[in-house]
Amino acid sequence: MKITSVKTAATSGHCMHLWVRIETDAGVTGLGECVHGGYQAIAIIKELEERLIGRDPFAIDAIFEETRRSLVFEGGFAGALITALTGIEIALWDLKGKALKVPIYELMGGKFRDDIRVYCDCEVSPGMNMDEVQAEVDKVLEAGFSALKVDLDIRAYGHTGSETGWYEKDRFNMTPNKWEHDRMVQLAEMVVKAAGKEVEVACDLHTRLDKHSAIRLAKDLEHLQLMWLEEPIPPENIDAMAEITRSTSVPICGGENLYLRHGFRKVFEQQALDIIMPDIPKCGGLSECRKIAEMADLYSIPFAPHNVSSPIGTMASAQVCATVPNFLVLEFHWFHRDYWSTITDGGEIIQNGRIKLTDRPGIGLELNEEVAKQHQYPGTTWFE
Ligand SMILES: [Mg+2]
To answer: Which CDD domains does the protein's record reference (predicted)?
Structure first.
């Protein structure tokens, strides 16, 4: 079997969802999804098509690594180039599963579990009072989720602290003032109270603090027994992240902006995070993230993938989550968006906060192109 074409399409959702379709001379095709690669990833895939045509589509790891290494001067270690390769890699796994008529998890050593626990992003925002927080949290709990996440970084919403107006003075400074600090603590307390004793709560800081402010905030959140505190500082400084992690009993989670095993190596060596959250359809794909998870397991670090993908990328991520021992929970980021369940032939893949793995080959879902095309991303072509 040989690859005959590599085509892309893109839809709007959480961000640009880039679809990669790989066709073969045997008539078997595979579909992959990647996210956060933007128009650059489309251009990269177009350029790579020529070198993929004629290749054996089953040699997934070899195609990935050979292409990546040959493009090291173009950025073959992080960013859009890796995301483009990720879309290709996931399509190749889908194709291989379909050709062999087995789900991807069967090709990756088999399942540790039959269903995948999912946590839900909750649209609580810093201006809300307790009743408003409760109403938002209740929507997620009524859908059956046993874990949720909220954004704690009040600067993301442009809140100023009416007493001080500090934010307006300098939006690049990463030290929250006392009002901002107290407001973040209060918001986390409201969410934990609204969620109740049995539901786990994670709080995301989107890299917006400096080291000392993160340590101070984590300390003041310790009484809440959070599932985790996410990305307190920018991902570049792993030494500073390690200091934060060691300073607090709150589990520190990160990694959605790291790429490949190489991006995580220092994290593991320094025990810089308590939980890792690679974005599987962004940072290297299924093989690579399975390897990242296995590396994490050596260091007693749970694997809780970041995920903003459609059901296709989510189910592709679930295939990996099934095959590693240290899987904790997978993200769901489309709770308030309406076309999630209509974009594939799988219906509502999340039931009561869990994704049940099926026996369908490959990823286990097909794109509903009629619906997907209604959400075509501006300025892109459709599998041409
Ligand atoms: Mg995050």
So the answer is: MR_like
CA 21 to chain centre: 21
Work out the widest C-alpha separation in the chain, in whole angstroms.
Answer: 68
Tell me the sheet residues that pair with 228: 202
Among 102, 122, 142, the domain-final residue is: 102
Q: How far is the CA of 130 from the centre of ligand 1 (A)?
A: 23
Q: Using the mean position of ligand 1's atoms as its centre, give its distance from the Cα of residue 204 in Å.
A: 5
Q: What is the CATH number of the domain that holds 217?
A: 3.20.20.120
Domain that holds residue 71: 3-102
Q: How many CA atoms lie within 13 A of 259 on its CB side?
A: 19
CA-closest candidate to residue 284, choices 267, 261, 307, 303: 261
pLDDT at 149 over 60: yes
Distance, in Å, from the CA atom of 26 to the CA atom of 169, rounded to the nearest integer, reads 62
10 Å CB burial of residue 382 (0-12, 13-18, 19+) is middle
Task: Judge whether 371 lies within some domain.
Answer: no
Tell me, in angstroms, the distance from the centre of ligand 1 to residue 252's CA: 12
Give residue 157's pLDDT band: very low, low, confident or very high (50, 70, 90).
Answer: low
Is the domain of 78 the same as that of 113? no
What residue has token string 């066709």? Answer: 23
Q: Is the pLDDT of residue 317 over 90?
A: yes
Q: How far apart are CA 268 and CA 263, in angstroms?
A: 10
CB 35 within 8 A of CB 82: no
Ligand 1 centroid – CA 230 distance (Å): 6
